[in-house]
Structure formats: C-alpha cells, structure tokens
C-alpha cells in the first residue's frame, strides 16, 4: 500500500489538519439537517439557552447528542478495526466480519426480549459480554487444527460465528415478535433518537480504551513484527494478545450498546489511515481515531441531507461504502497472493 505521508513532521501536520476537519464536521452536524441552522443560532443557544425556543431545543436535545455519539463511536469502531486486523493479521479483519457485532446484538436481544432488561447501564455490560464471547469463539474455532491459527481460519471462523449469532437472534425474535420493537433500536443501527444519557454510560470505557490503545503503539509495532520476534524482544505475547482483545471488545461492544449494528467502519478506516501514514501503530491508531469520527459524522450528516425530511438509516450509508471496499480488499489480497505463488513457482 502506498504511504502518502512519510516524514514525522508531515504526519504531525496531517493529524492537526484532520483534527481541524473533525471540528468542521462537528459544527456541520449541529448546523445541517432537515432544518438548517446558523452559527448565530448556536451562539444564542450557548449563551442564552431558552427552554421554550424550538431551535435551542433541537440543537441541544437532538443535534448535540448525535454529534457526541458519532465522534465517540466512530473513533471506537475504527480503532477496534485496527486491533482486529492486527490480532488476525488479516486486512479483512473487523468487528463486524469477526462476529463481534452480531455477538453483542444477540446478547442484547436475549436480555432485553427474554429477561425484560431496560436499564442501559446494565445492557452495556451484556453488550461487552456478547462481544467477548464472540471473540473467544472465533479464536477457539480458528485454532482447531494441528497447523495452529492462521488469518484465513480466523476470518472463516468469524463468518461462521457471525452467521450463528444472526440465526439465534432471528429465532428469538420469531418466537417473541412482541419484543421486536424493543430491540429494533439496536438492530437497525442508527444515531437518530439517541440521547446523551446513552453515551455517558459507556463514554468512560471508550475514552480509557482509546487512550490506552494510542499509548500501546510501540508495543503493537513489536507484536506486528511476528510472535517469535516479539518474544525474542522480550514482549509477553499472551499478555499483549489479551490486552488487545479486551480493548477491542470494550470499543466494539460499547459502541454497539449505543448505536446498534453499524458495520464496515472498522474495515474502511484502518486501510484509509494506512494509506496516509503507513503501518506504524504509533501513527495508525491516532489517525484512525480521528478519521473514524470524521467518517461517522459525515455519514450521519448525509443521512439527513439525501432525502429530507426523511432520514436514511446510517447502516445503509456505511454498507453502501463498505461493501464495495470489502470486495476490493478481498480481490486485492487474492491477487497479491496469486502473484506471490507465481513468483515461487518460477523460482
């Protein structure tokens, strides 16, 4: 993959530029929708909030929570994708492909529909648990052979686990159709209608996990060089794997507990970041953090502008972009493997 920015000064400037772009997107999220507002409206809301002013109410109760949620969950899903691609050593690795998303949704459906749990603070932990169970199943299935774990086996195991959890979820909903409305909130995958209380419940987990992943950049570089090399350099590989797994589960599960099943963010953003700054996780993680927030903010804004006053589901936008990208990465990987095989045959 071509690396556009190679010098550290350029990477610092690029990160600063992306942060500025992020603030522009955050402001745009407050301004644009089925009804457009002005900077004066936002200033008036901040300086002299009026609970009887419909403009102030919409900006504060609807637009501001959407902005905060998009920033937090976009960054979290993107970094979860970075970690999953590192753990699987596969460019197709992402929480959605590995069954993490469907595992979280399944556990949410079970406890909301069957056990009538409605407290978001409790549901968050069930989302974490579902993501963890899915991750463990994928790892176990991917290592069930004498040849050990390979990236292809992990991806195939993820596809199988994803199909299993999706099937179980559909069975539960078919048997309890009255509970469909209770969980449609998470299955649809959207930011619309979410409140600040929802993101506040998971924000500490997401923030700590994002910061921790950024600080692990150098250790992730060592791990990425290969397990044998990492062990030779003194790294505790099992502890590193466990740490990354927990971080991925928290980032993906926490995001899904708030916005539901939004796919492909964790697939697209790491590749976009790699095309800018290369494979060093010292830069890849912070770039993915900012790019993930920008991507989900832009996608959310577009859901309001494409067909106003109606909104297109956010999952449709991310899938529209992500599905062709998935095919491209898969085709590119297969073509590169084919070339390497041809070279080995020639030699």
From TrEMBL:
Gene3D superfamilies: ABC transporter involved in vitamin B12 uptake, BtuC. GO terms for molecular function: transmembrane transporter activity. Pfam families: FecCD. It is a multi-pass membrane protein. It comes from the Bacteria. GO terms for cellular component: plasma membrane. It is found in: Cell membrane. GO terms for biological process: siderophore-iron import into cell. The keyword Membrane applies. Keywords: Cell membrane, Membrane, Transmembrane, Transmembrane helix, Transport. Belongs to the binding-protein-dependent transport system permease family. FecCD subfamily. PANTHER family: FE(3+) DICITRATE TRANSPORT SYSTEM PERMEASE PROTEIN FECC-RELATED (PTHR30472:SF1), FERRIC ENTEROBACTIN TRANSPORT SYSTEM PERMEASE PROTEIN (PTHR30472). This is Iron ABC transporter permease. It comes from Metabacillus sediminilitoris.
């Amino acid at each position: 993959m071509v690396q556009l920015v190679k010098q550290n000064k350029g990477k610092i400037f690029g990160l600063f530029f992306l942060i500025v772009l992020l603030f522009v997107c955050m402001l745009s999220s407050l301004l644009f929708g089925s009804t457009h507002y002005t900077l004066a409206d936002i200033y008036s809301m901040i300086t002299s909030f009026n609970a009887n002013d419909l403009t102030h109410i919409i900006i504060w109760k609807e637009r501001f929570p959407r902005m905060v949620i998009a920033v937090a969950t976009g960054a979290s899903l993107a970094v979860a994708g970075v970690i999953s691609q590192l753990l699987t050593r596969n460019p197709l690795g992402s929480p959605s492909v590995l069954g993490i998303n469907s595992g979280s949704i399944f556990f949410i459906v079970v406890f909301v529909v069957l056990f009538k749990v409605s407290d978001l603070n409790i549901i968050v932990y069930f989302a974490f648990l579902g993501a963890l169970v899915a991750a463990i199943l994928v790892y176990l299935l991917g290592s069930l052979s004498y040849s050990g774990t390979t990236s292809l086996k992990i991806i195939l195991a993820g596809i199988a686990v994803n199909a299993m959890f999706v099937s179980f979820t559909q069975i539960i909903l078919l048997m309890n159709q009255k509970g469909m409305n209770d969980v449609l909130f998470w299955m649809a995958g959207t930011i619309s209608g979410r409140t600040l209380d929802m993101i506040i419940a998971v924000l500490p987990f997401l923030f700590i996990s994002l910061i921790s992943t950024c600080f692990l950049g150098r250790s992730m570089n060592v791990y990425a060089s290969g397990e044998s090399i990492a062990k030779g350099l003194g790294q505790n590989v099992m502890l590193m794997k466990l740490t990354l797994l927990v971080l991925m589960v928290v980032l993906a599960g926490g995001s899904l507990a708030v916005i539901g099943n939004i796919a492909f963010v964790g697939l697209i953003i790491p590749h976009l970041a790699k095309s800018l700054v290369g494979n060093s996780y010292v830069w890849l993680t912070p770039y993915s953090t900012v790019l993930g927030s920008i991507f989900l903010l832009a996608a959310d804004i577009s859901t309001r502008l494409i067909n106003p006053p109606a909104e297109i589901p956010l999952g449709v936008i991310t899938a529209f972009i992500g599905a062709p990208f998935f095919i491209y990465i898969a085709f590119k990987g297969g073509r590169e493997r084919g070339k390497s095989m041809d070279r080995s045959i020639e030699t």
